[in-house]
Amino acid sequence: MKPRDRQILQIALPSIVSNITVPLLGLIDVAIVGHLGSPAYIGAIAVGGMLFNIIYWIFGFLRMGTSGMTSQAFGKRDLPEVVRLLIRSVGIGLAVAFCLILLQTPIRQGAFFLIHPTNEVREMATRYFHICIWGAPAMLGLYGLTGWFIGMQNSRIPMYIAITQNMANIIASLSLVYLCGMKVEGVALGTLIAQYAGFLMGLALWVRNYGKLQRYWEIKNYKLRIKGKEGTGIWEKGAMLRFFQVNRDIFLRTLCLVTVTLFFTSAGASQGEIILAVNTLLMQLFTLFSYVMDGFAYAGEALSGRYIGARNREALTDTVRHLFGWGVAMAVLFTLVYALGGNAFLGLLTDDKEVIAVADTYFYWALAVPAVGIAAFIWDGIFIGATATRGMLLSMAAAAVSFFVLYYGLRPVLANHALWLAFLAYLLMRGAVQTGLSRGMIRKAFR
């Protein structure tokens, strides 16, 4: 295996493991309440889990922005700036988290106004929400830590954190529910304990692996200062402006992504329970593919930022070429696996013969996802590493517009086929626009 491929896999493989473990937190909670005797428990966890998924998804820029800027500072060997970025990102994440805690009641009321759960589900989901919201400091603090670790070319630590969270969640939730007799509150507390276990694990691993970086900071007159050039303080105006410019673009991009994703579900639901079930099942194929491709995107973030920081254009070009090689290989592999075993996989998820029969009608759309999606995933990672977030926003905006134009234009004729065609065009447009912007992005990065 070539050194560049080995370098990519050292970051991608642990990231893939971390990505796959993420949905386990929600699945464990659902599995536990699913045996408590009432479907309202499942509904409460589903509603509460969805709220937190959206909240944390929106603030995912804390991870992505930190990853790109840290990898560039690492490439420059600017260790004081590396330390500043960590403190800046975690500090802002904690500040956002405390705002969420202060605003928890209006956030919950606004969400329930849009979702309209039953009274029983609303009551249980309210208890779940007001316990789990206290995990926001741990989750958003972890976003900063995770992005920083990836920027430092270390994706193993985020993997260890994810495994720790899942183990803590299983032990705590089962103990609180079955040993202490708690119900939704026990599951919520188990999730909360797991979130802080992951955060504390992240801090402990930072001290163990990067504790020597503490020599770059000092506390004078009760103020934390980072040694380095003048005018480069943690909260210095220019540095904060750049941090928020990068993260503003990622935030707006994420809003576009969330809008398309939620609309896809809503449009399926409007066509009846069978179509909603079919779309949900087929989207699991996309989700599995995205977990793997996100691993390679993380490798793109870390390595492209590193080589841009080091001013090594040749290494960056070689990395991009190898990343796309892995992307093509993954697309071919997933297409073959889905073509040969996709129906069997759907059979594991449901035994409803009508749903499986209708899924066959749309299966070829899901089969095309890997081929049209690889460029979007790979370029996302490279653009984040280059902190070329404006290009990411433009490509996502163009893709979102194409999605809605195609769907509403073709819906009267193609119905649910129009939804899938629009989704594929959305993925393809993201990759196509970023491909068109890539040369300019690289030239700008090496000015």
Automatic annotation (TrEMBL):
<feature type="transmembrane region" description="Helical">
    <location>
        <begin position="187"/>
        <end position="207"/>
    </location>
</feature>
<dbReference type="InterPro" id="IPR044644">
    <property type="entry name" value="DinF-like"/>
</dbReference>
<protein>
    <submittedName>
        <fullName>MATE family efflux transporter</fullName>
    </submittedName>
</protein>
<feature type="transmembrane region" description="Helical">
    <location>
        <begin position="250"/>
        <end position="268"/>
    </location>
</feature>
<comment type="similarity">
    <text>Belongs to the multi antimicrobial extrusion (MATE) (TC 2.A.66.1) family.</text>
</comment>
<feature type="transmembrane region" description="Helical">
    <location>
        <begin position="157"/>
        <end position="181"/>
    </location>
</feature>
<feature type="transmembrane region" description="Helical">
    <location>
        <begin position="85"/>
        <end position="107"/>
    </location>
</feature>
<feature type="transmembrane region" description="Helical">
    <location>
        <begin position="361"/>
        <end position="379"/>
    </location>
</feature>
<keyword id="KW-1133">Transmembrane helix</keyword>
<dbReference type="GO" id="GO:0042910">
    <property type="term" value="F:xenobiotic transmembrane transporter activity"/>
</dbReference>
<dbReference type="GO" id="GO:0015297">
    <property type="term" value="F:antiporter activity"/>
</dbReference>
<keyword id="KW-0472">Membrane</keyword>
<feature type="transmembrane region" description="Helical">
    <location>
        <begin position="414"/>
        <end position="433"/>
    </location>
</feature>
<dbReference type="GO" id="GO:0005886">
    <property type="term" value="C:plasma membrane"/>
</dbReference>
<feature type="transmembrane region" description="Helical">
    <location>
        <begin position="391"/>
        <end position="408"/>
    </location>
</feature>
<keyword id="KW-0812">Transmembrane</keyword>
<dbReference type="InterPro" id="IPR002528">
    <property type="entry name" value="MATE_fam"/>
</dbReference>
<feature type="transmembrane region" description="Helical">
    <location>
        <begin position="40"/>
        <end position="64"/>
    </location>
</feature>
<feature type="transmembrane region" description="Helical">
    <location>
        <begin position="127"/>
        <end position="150"/>
    </location>
</feature>
<feature type="transmembrane region" description="Helical">
    <location>
        <begin position="320"/>
        <end position="341"/>
    </location>
</feature>
<feature type="transmembrane region" description="Helical">
    <location>
        <begin position="12"/>
        <end position="34"/>
    </location>
</feature>
<dbReference type="Pfam" id="PF01554">
    <property type="entry name" value="MatE"/>
</dbReference>
<feature type="transmembrane region" description="Helical">
    <location>
        <begin position="274"/>
        <end position="299"/>
    </location>
</feature>
